[in-house]
Design goal:
The chain is an alpha+beta fold and 97 residues long. The chain has one domain: Alpha-Beta Plaits, CATH 3.30.70.60. It is 28% helix and 48% strand. It contains two helices and four strands; from the N terminus they run βαββαβ. A four-stranded antiparallel β-sheet has the order 2-3-1-4, with helices on one face. β2 and β3 form a beta hairpin. The chain is globular and about 35 Å long. The termini are close together.
């Protein structure tokens, strides 16, 4: 398995229950693909460099995980269909393999 880093943000005005449901869905998608979550770091509310969907702020979360390279496409697909996730990015971390 390879090391990856997932950074995403959600609308900061959504309810905490919806945010928890989003986190649970992302976690279950990673583990269902055979991945292992190493660390989850909630960065909190940050100002965006430019407005995205009329939002000036975003609630950021960073997830470090290990997964097979073939599962990244499925994780990206799920991230795109979750309405609460406004933007996301998965980066391979060669320094953590």
């Amino acid at each position: 398995m390879k090391a990856y880093e997932l950074l995403f943000f959600v609308n900061p005005t959504i309810e905490e229950s919806e945010r928890e449901a989003t986190m649970q869905r992302i976690d279950s998608t990673i583990t269902a693909q055979g991945g292992v979550i190493d660390n989850t770091d909630n960065w909190g509310r940050r100002k965006l460099a430019y407005e995205i969907d009329k939002l000036a702020d975003g609630d950021y979360t960073l997830i470090d995980f290990h997964a097979e390279p073939s599962s990244i496409d499925e994780i990206n697909r799920v991230l795109r269909i979750i309405d609460a996730v406004k933007r996301s990015m998965i980066i391979a971390r060669t320094d953590r393999d």
